[in-house]
């Protein structure tokens, strides 16, 4: 029998689209993956519904209300220090001003102008998916 800690953790991410651009956020200094871009979101609390958890994370980290919608993709990630399932939803933000806590910059980028090497490793497959790039290559990954 497997111990409960063997269950894969779930991390959520939002793809927020406006006028052909997608919201991305850069992790601030002092945090894991500092200086790298990501799709905003975060870890679920025990037993939390993924959509509700994503909405909570966006409220906590960006200071905005959101509505998580269609599941875009689910990506397993196995890194040197963490393993989890990244669950990505198309998300709509409610009107309001950003008040980021874990990010030092927010940008709206067209998928084709996203440089996946500047994104955290778990988010890179999402960049490729949005930009219509082939999934096979790992050329953009840094050690």
Question: How does this structure look, described?
Answer:
It is a single chain. This protein has 143 residues and is of the alpha+beta class. The protein has one domain (6-131): Alpha-Beta Complex (Nucleoside Triphosphate Pyrophosphohydrolase), CATH 3.90.79.10. 15% of the residues lie in helices and 36% in strands. It has two helices and eight strands; from the N terminus they run βββββαβββα. It has helices spanning 50-62, 124-131, and strands at residues 9-15, 17-18, 21-27, 37-38, 41-43, 66-78, 83-93, 103-109. The strands form two sheets. It has a four-stranded mixed β-sheet with strand order 5-1-7-6, with helices on one face. Strands 2, 3, 4 and 8 form a four-stranded antiparallel β-sheet that branches.
CATH homologous superfamily designation:
Nucleoside Triphosphate Pyrophosphohydrolase
Largest sheet: 4 strands, mixed
Molecular shape: globular
CATH class: Alpha Beta
Could you say which structural class the secondary elements and strand pairing correspond to? alpha+beta
List the secondary-structure elements in sequence, H or E. Answer: EEEEEHEEEH
């Amino acid at each position: 029998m497997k111990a409960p800690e063997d269950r894969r953790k779930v991390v959520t991410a939002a793809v927020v689209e406006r006028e052909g651009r997608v919201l991305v956020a850069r992790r601030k200094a002092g945090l894991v993956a500092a200086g790298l871009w990501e799709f905003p979101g975060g870890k679920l609390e025990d037993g939390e519904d993924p959509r509700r958890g994503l909405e909570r994370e966006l409220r906590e980290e960006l200071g905005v209300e959101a509505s998580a919608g269609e599941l875009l993709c689910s990506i397993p990630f196995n890194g040197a220090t963490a393993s989890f399932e990244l669950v990505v939803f198309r998300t709509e933000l409610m009107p309001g001003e950003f008040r980021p806590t874990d990010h030092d910059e927010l940008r709206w980028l067209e998928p084709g102008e996203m440089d996946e090497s500047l994104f955290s490793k778990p988010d890179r497959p999402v960049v490729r998916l949005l930009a219509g790039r082939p999934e096979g290559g790992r050329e953009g990954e840094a050690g």
